[in-house]
């Protein structure tokens, strides 16, 4: 069953939004509540979640376009699995795992904080990241 993905209701004082980016492309499998796209207004950035699991069949609005409430952004086919394409899904999965780690280091605030202490983010395990900065030396 095809489901239309629409622009959510925008705040009262906002007439339109800009479709900033698509997180999924046509033909990709999506899970329920997965973020499909980001919409930006002059006041807020909104996420457009997938209402059901399935395959993104069609993208009707390209990134950078101005949209209004209720406008159809894409069409999602409920309950259908994407056709396998050999080794490409594994490569794409590896790229998406590496992307958040690289993006985390690009945060200006994080780089500045680490530079104050002469630290490298990669040198910490998840548990040490918190405990290192919460440790109070004995007086």
Task: Give a concise summary.
With 139 residues, this protein is of the alpha+beta class. It is built from 3 helices and 8 strands, in the order ββββββββααα.
Give the terminus-to-terminus CA distance. 66 Å
Low-confidence stretches: 86-99
- The general outline is flat
**Main β-sheet description:** 4 strands, antiparallel
- Count structural domains: 2
**Separate helix tally:** 3
Rg from Cα: 20 Å
Oligomer: single chain
CATH architecture of the largest domain: Beta Barrel
What is the succession of H and E elements?
EEEEEEEEHHH
Computed structural class: alpha+beta
Strand content: 25-35%
Q: How would you state the average pLDDT, rounded?
A: 75
Q: Tell me the name of the CATH homologous superfamily of the largest domain.
A: RNA polymerase II/Efflux pump adaptor protein, barrel-sandwich hybrid domain
Say how many strands there are.
Answer: 8
Name a few traits of the molecule.
139 residues; alpha+beta; OB fold (Dihydrolipoamide Acetyltransferase, E2P); 3 helices; 8 strands; 28% strand; flat
Explain the overall architecture.
It is built from three helices and eight strands. With 139 residues, the chain is an alpha+beta fold. The chain folds into two domains: 2-78, RNA polymerase II/Efflux pump adaptor protein, barrel-sandwich hybrid domain (OB fold (Dihydrolipoamide Acetyltransferase, E2P)); 93-134, no CATH class. The chain has a four-stranded antiparallel beta sheet, with no helix packed on it. A four-stranded antiparallel beta sheet has the order 5-4-2-7, with no helix packed on it. Residues 86-99 have low confidence and may be disordered.
